[in-house]
Amino acid sequence: MKRAPVIAGGVAFVAIALIALFAFSPSDAERSEAAPLVGRTAPAIEATTIEGERFDLDSLRGGWVLVNFFATWCGPCKVEQPELIRFAESHEGRDFVVSISLNEGPADAAKFFEANGGDWPVIAEGNGNIALDYGVVRLPESYLVDPDGLVVAKFNGGVTSAGIERIIARAGSGGN
Questions:
Q1: d(C-alpha 42, C-alpha 150), whole Å
Q2: Within a domain: 10
Q3: Is 16 part of any domain?
Q4: Of 2, 12, 138, 144, which is the most buried if we count CB atoms within 10 A?
Q5: Which residues pair with 69 in a beta bridge?
Q6: d(CA 138, CA 129)
Q7: What's the CA gap between 117 and 132, in Å, rounded?
Q8: With bands split at pLDDT 50, 70 and 90, how would you rate the model's confidence at 148?
């Protein structure tokens, strides 16, 4: 009989410790600040889009660029697509999104965009060299590049338009 209160107390302690751990652990966007590319010049991206046009990341200097890595079979990639669309539409003409489809051909990437929306450059990367340069680990994964070409954030597992906006506002105010 005396063991029950001790066991219950131990279980309660572990539960409270786990809740505190999850409640105070940083979000993906906050953890991104420790990513190796954050604070460095974004790796070059020079490629051909699925529409046959040349794409050069450096040509977009002066605006914010969200470099998004995805795959057509990736469920979370489909979930984040409306958020990417919302960001792109609210920044049309001044900031940009580029999506890079990993290990897939242009036809697969085009079908994904036809089904899920989005109107920005898409690169179908068969060999994954761009992903290697960015150190992509899991999909979806995105990198926010500032107007000077520096990576200011890495997003793991999907983005929201509001989350991107918060990072831009924080970076625009000197990181405060």
A1: 6
A2: no
A3: no
A4: 144
A5: 100, 141
A6: 15
A7: 26
A8: very high
C-alpha–C-alpha distance, residues 115 and 111, integer Å: 6
Q: With contact defined as beta carbons under 8 Å apart, do 66 and 147 qualify? A: no
Question: What is the arithmetic mean of pLDDT over 75-86?
Answer: 96
pLDDT at position 103: 84
Which residues constitute the domain of residue 100? 31-172
pLDDT tier at 109, thresholds 50, 70, 90: very high
Q: How many domains does the chain have?
A: 1
Residue 34 pLDDT more than 80? Answer: no
What CATH number does the domain containing 121 carry?
3.40.30.10
pTM of the model: 0.79
Residue 165 maps to a domain: yes
